[in-house]
Amino acid sequence: NAGVTQTPKFQVLKTGQSMTLQCAQDMNHNSMYWYRQDPGMGLRLIYYSASEGTTDKGEVPNGYNVSRLNKREFSLRLESAAPSQTSVYFCASSADWQAYNEQFFGPGTRLTVL
Amino acid sequence: TQLLEQSPQFLSIQEGENLTVYCNSSSVFSSLQWYRQEPGEGPVLLVTVVTGGEVKKLKRLTFQFGDARKDSSLHITAAQTGDTGLYLCAGAKGNNRLAFGKGNQVVVIP
């Protein structure tokens, strides 16, 4: 039981390049989330998926797209990376969005955009 | 505007001392969670408090939810080096999203 896994762990991009961050959970959770964490800013929600087949914008969605591929997988895509997107990205999942929404986090992807 | 304010932002104490950190808001939450994050890792859930005035204990950690469900505190008794980390509080407002504070960075010196 791996919980929430994320790939890659580290990535360096040049401005304008694109990439997809992958996330998978094996806990049969309905809801999945993408956050970014920056020094002094805390965790900010980018996008979330309350259930398979649905996605919604969070607090800072600009420059990102997401795909809920199936119940297990939720990917985050940067179409044209910018230095402002240098951050640590965390994927999380929770069992039922109507409950306490206790979230389980992956280990993070550390992204640098040059 | 930050929905949840955590204080102090940084706290350094000697091993064996006690400490309390706070999470405050002007909003009411249906529940509040505390997470601990260690360097290079994702946050890990410690506890969820739901009822106003609720107190939960997790070994040497005591969590309290304010009577009005707007604030919370975390007290650590006889801190150990393994308690070092970033403590994050997060409030749920029933819309399947959590609002996170910026965290209390705790450093326990041996």
Query: What are the secondary-structure elements of chain B, in order, as H or E?
Result: EEEEEEEEEEE
In quaternary terms, these chains amount to heterodimer
Content-based structural category of chain B: mainly beta
Could you estimate the helical fraction of the residues of chain B in percent?
Answer: under 10%
Helix content of chain A: under 10%
Compute the gyration radius of chain A: what is it?
A: 13 Å
Average pLDDT reading of chain B: 93
Report the count of strand segments of chain A.
11
Binned strand content of chain B: over 45%
Q: How much of the sequence of chain A is in beta strands?
A: over 45%
Number of E-type strands of chain B: 11
Distance between the terminal alpha carbons of chain A, to the nearest Å?
36 Å
Give start-end ranges of low-pLDDT stretches of chain B: none
Reported for the largest beta sheet of chain A, the result is: 7 strands, mixed
| Element pattern of chain A in H and E | EEEEEEEEEEE
Characterize the main sheet of chain B: 6 strands, mixed
Walk me through the topology.
The complex is a heterodimer of chains A (114) and B (110).
Chain A: E1 4-7, E2 10-13, E3 19-25, E4 31-38, E5 42-49, E6 56-57, E7 64-68, E8 74-78, E9 87-94, E10 104-105, E11 109-113
Parallel strand pairs in A: 2-11
Antiparallel strand pairs in A: 1-3, 3-8, 4-5, 4-9, 5-6, 7-8, 9-10, 9-11
Chain B: E1 5-7, E2 10-14, E3 19-24, E4 31-37, E5 44-49, E6 55-58, E7 61-65, E8 71-76, E9 85-92, E10 98-100, E11 104-109
Parallel strand pairs in B: 2-11
Antiparallel strand pairs in B: 1-3, 3-8, 4-5, 4-9, 6-7, 7-8, 9-10, 9-11
